[in-house]
Amino acid sequence: QWLSDRKKRALQKKDVDIRRRIELIQDFEMPTVCTKIKVSRDGQYIMAVGTYKPRIRCFDTYQLSQKFERCLDSEVVTFEILSDDYSKIVFLQCGRFVEFHSQHGHYYRTRIPKFGRDFSYHYPSCDLFFVGASSEVYRLNLEQGRFLNSLQTDASESNVCDINPVHFLFAMGTAEGKVECWDPRTRNRVGLLDCALSSVTADTEIDGLPSISALKFDGALNMAVGTSTGQVLLYDLRSSNPLIVKDHHYGLPIKSIQFQRQLDLIISADSRIIKMWNKDTGKIFTSMEPEYDINDVCLYPDSGMLMTANEAPKMNIYYIPVLGPAPKWCSFLDNLTEELEENPESTVYDDYKFVTRKDLENLGLAHLIGSSLLRAYMHGFFMDIRLYHKAKMMANPFAYEEYRREKIRQKIEETRAQRVQLKKLPKVNKELALKLIEEEEEQQVIRKRKQKNLPSLLKDDRFKVMFENPDFQVDEQSEEFRLLNPLVSKISEKRKRKLKILEELEAQEQEEEEEPEGKASDAESSESSDDEKGWVEEVRKQRKLLRQEEKVKRQERFKEDQQTLLKPQFFEIKEGEEFRSFKDSAKKQKLMKKTLGDRLKLEEKLGTLNVSDTTVGSKQATFKLKKSEQQKKQQEAEKQHRQERKTLRRSASHLKSKRGRGRLFH
């Protein structure tokens, strides 16, 4: 519907599927909305009214195309075809106008006192009965060309009306939920039905008073009434109680009621769903939910074809072979429906791609939401396929290569599947899978005997990952596996021996002798002792091998360490910092990791911190700052200088004393 006519024609030439599509009537649609649809009594013409602009379109079934189109001054509420063909039509319009059309076009126009909602034509007297927003039923005689005395009813307003085709009883549905029946000959009311009260059952939930929204006669005695709350009541005119009450369970007004006499079905429709159900039992035959809201339903006479007027330009045509044969003008449908297979296929749009909001975010096109490039539909959007391909190429340039590789892989897998099927082993843990298969084959004898179907590890979904994910690959060179392997092998040997014993027992059941209770056979005890000894020896061997392998690995590492030459590495020291050694930095890092309490205790031991209690009760801490290397060197130089001066002074004083002693001696 988004494509232009030119593009549609181009697609019809190229696409084989489009050429095979069945278009019964060419351009069977309205510009915007279709409100009413009817078929002429001879079955040749289908007439539909809609908007916008208000118009009527007549389609000729013999030519399978549109015959004419006429535009009107105001919207049509309903219309009636008086003749067998399209030559006499009456329209009830919104502005209280009643317009008559003949074969050539507009013929006459008149007006009724109140706004009309429905009308019916009484053939014996040529009277038109109009009901609407009034308590009166207006009568217009087409033979005399004048209004007659109206019928005075007890209703405030009337919504629908109908005339029985057999005995011409006139019935009208009121806004109060009642149906009044009148005899046109005497112009007297002959019956009153309270449908609103009868429609309320134990299962129904009603907020307000239901009014009558649809009315249809079937034969001389049956009448179906539709309410504004979604119930359909089937009456026998001889009884005031309904024969059956059918609820649509949507709470929407019933728009149309049709009778299908071949299968005794009633076709009732509201704006959302069309239901077909048996009029005797009320059992659902089938139901249809079109994409758009329904305005009217028309059943083609004596056939299985159904047409709907929707809140959309396209008018739908349904063909149900069970209801009846196809009409004469499209009898080829019977052959087609026999050949068609009921294979549901998803709708494919060649020029548009459906994307969700998440897809748009992945492509980086979320900013286009609300623009004309995206068309909102259901839970996502339709976008042009060319724009989608461009955006995908920019988001993932290698997408085509990945798609091509995947297709090639699928083709190879298909060819492999055609070959002779062997025992398929998984890619991961092949030995374990083969062992499990062998064990299953060996245990078939026991399973047949016990008649129990035990689950297989290979087929169990819980252990599927163990044979698919490479992370679960069993490492046979690991220490744990090599130490457990003797035990596993011995268990498998035990199983084989038991199976052989069971087979021998089955073959020699008569010659078997039972041993006394409480005593074990010597053979079993000797076998168990031999198994234990053999297992211990194998475990010791595996441990010796593991030790030897560890020694070899150590020697190889030692050789590699000797061969490797350590190259000197140079580091740059920041300005203002002095390098002492790597050990000092390591000590600093360890010290910084310690808590404040541990650091205080360490400083107390070194003597750089002194903590003492005061008289007030508080504590006093005195710190001694650490001296830098330059300060230490300076102090050592000063200390050495002092010692040198002391030694010089001592030597000088010693010399003076010697001189004084010499003088005294002389």
Automatic annotation (TrEMBL):
- Major localization class: nucleus
**Which residue ranges does the record assign to the Nucleolar protein 10-like N-terminal domain?**
1-343
Annotated spans, Disordered: 506-535, 622-666
The record places domain NUC153 at 460-486
Q: Where is the composition biased (Basic and acidic residues)?
A: 626-641
The answer to keyword Amino-acid biosynthesis applying to this record is: no
Location comes to: Nucleus, Nucleolus
Q: Which InterPro entries match?
A: Beta-prop_NOL10_N, NOL10/Enp2, NOL10_2nd, NUC153, WD40/YVTN_repeat-like_dom_sf, WD40_repeat_dom_sf
Nucleolar protein 10-like second domain location: 348-396
Q: Output the GO biological process annotations, alphabetical, semicolon-separated.
A: maturation of SSU-rRNA from tricistronic rRNA transcript (SSU-rRNA, 5.8S rRNA, LSU-rRNA)
| Keyword list, A-Z | Coiled coil, Nucleus, Repeat, WD repeat
Which superkingdom does the taxonomy of this entry point to? Eukaryota
A GO CC annotation recorded here is:
small-subunit processome
Q: Where is the composition biased (Basic residues)?
A: 642-666
Where do Acidic residues bias regions lie?
506-516
Family recorded in the similarity comment:
Belongs to the WD repeat NOL10/ENP2 family.
Q: What is this protein called?
A: Nucleolar protein 10
